[in-house]
Structure formats: C-alpha cells, structure tokens
Write a structure and sequence with these properties.
globular, about 325 residues, Rossmann fold, NADP, N-(1-d-carboxylethyl)-l-norvaline Dehydrogenase, domain 2, single chain, 8-stranded mixed beta sheet
Length: about 325
Amino acid sequence: MKIIIAGAGAMGSRFGLMLHQAGNEVVLIDGWQEHIDLIKEHGLRANFNGEEIAEKIVIYHQNELETLNFSADLVILFTKAMQLDAMMQSIKSMVGDQTKVLCLLNGIGHEDVIKQYVPLSNILLGNTMWTAGLEGPGKAKLFGNGTIDLQNLGTEGKSSANEVIEVLNEAKLNARYSDNILSSIYKKACVNGTMNGLCTILDSNMASFGETSVADAIVESIVAEFAQVAAYEKAELNVPEVLAQIKTCYNRETIGLHHPSMYQDLIINNRLTEIDYINGAIVRKGREYGIETPYCQFLTQLVHGKEEILGAK
C-alpha cells in the first residue's frame, strides 16, 4: 500500500518504520527541517525495543510537495493539532477520491477540519495506545506494545475500514474496528489530559508523578470533568476503567519512565503544545454545555504560562 505519514515526529516515525518494514511504500512528511535532513542523510534511526536500527525511508518537507507525484492509498495523520489544516492543505494533491485518511491525533474534534478536504466515507477516526519518543532529530526511541481503535465516519462502516486494518495488522500495529470510537477517544484524552499537562508542569516522568501523594486526587478531578463533557456528547466513559488505565502509566517496569509527548514538545524541544486541543477542548465544550471545568482550565493556563516563560515556538 502507498502510505503517507503526515507528521513524522515520534509516533509518525514509529508507524512509518513499522509499515515500511512490513513492505509498504511509505513517504514521511514533516515540517522540522533538521529532522528531515538527518533522516535523508542517515535513514530513520531508532532504538527499537533495545535494538539500534536505521531504515532508509523517503521524507519530504511539507512545503516542497508541489512537484511530488505520489497518489496515496492511505494517509495517517500525526501532525500537531494546531498544524492540521496546514498539513491537509499541503498534501491535498496526493489525496484522491479513494484515499483513506486515518486521524490518530491527540485531542478532540479533528474531524471538523479533515472533512473540509475528504468525504466522510474516506475518514477513519481513531486513537492509539502506542507510545514513542524522540532522542533528537532523526532518532526515535520505540518501546513496548500498543493498539489502535478506529471507526469509519461514513455509512459504509467497518467494510470501508477492513483493508486499512489488515495493512496495519500486517505491520503488527494491532488495529481493531470500533463502533463507538468517540468513547475510545475520550478514554485516551483522559490519559493525555492528565499525564501530558501534569508531567510537563511538574517536570516529571509518569512514574515519579504517580508516586506522589497528590496524584490520585488531581487525576480523579480532571477525569471527572472529561466524563461530564463526554456524557453530554453521549460518549460512554467508564471512569473506574479510565483511572485504572492511567495508573498503568506509573509502572516503572513498562512505560512509567517515559516522558509524555507534551513534555517532549515543550521541555525538550521548546515547541508549543497541544493543550488547547486536550484540556482546553474540555474547557470550551464545558462553557458550551454549562459544565464547570476548573481543573482543566487551570492546567491549560499553567501550560500556556510555561510556554511563554520558555519562549516556545
């Protein structure tokens, strides 16, 4: 399958690498020039479950696609939420009538942007519990296992997603169809809405945060706000199950020593975060629905304050 990975950061690198290794024709697209240059020079390098590897994968800057003759069967979106519209504009010449677009961005509401470029029948909305990190430009750190849940937004449903699921599973990405992806997205948003912002503000990995005496109380308060908004949108959210999922992030023997993507963006790479599309989205929806969201609002403000202090770009 001819696949575009739109956003070749940590997660895009993981998916691009695994799909490339499974024999697909993969093109990476990103906007970070140093990252692009090093991948072109050395290949995509990765610490892949303790093994150092490098794979030659084609990569382009999103602003140099005008002359690229590549018609994608599948686009997987991993760009930052605030960059989604610009990325869709950049790749639109490579998105045909039959191209499926799988959105795996963190946060809520991205389909509103994608449907301006792609019919609902070709949009696959999903979430993934895979993890990944960048040790620097051109070098990924990939460890552990994960899953993907996805749903077709058109009337064809599962039949329109089967080929994509098959390709993902051939790459050992553990994809499965969901009839209620909004619940899965809210469940993951709860993980991101706690681990990302809190570890970023506290300058901590997930295990160290989870071992604090205040972790449970803070997490429960944030998840309660997500659950109220999800209920208003008729998304089923099992709060005890969500809290149990979050607590698995604290395990030092699995992913607890991992720094979440928001920490990597802001603290390591001095980049603006996606807080407005995670906790900030809950604040906006809460205002619309008449739901109080003080914890999400405060955390959103703290992260924006941190961005300003660090001069993030």
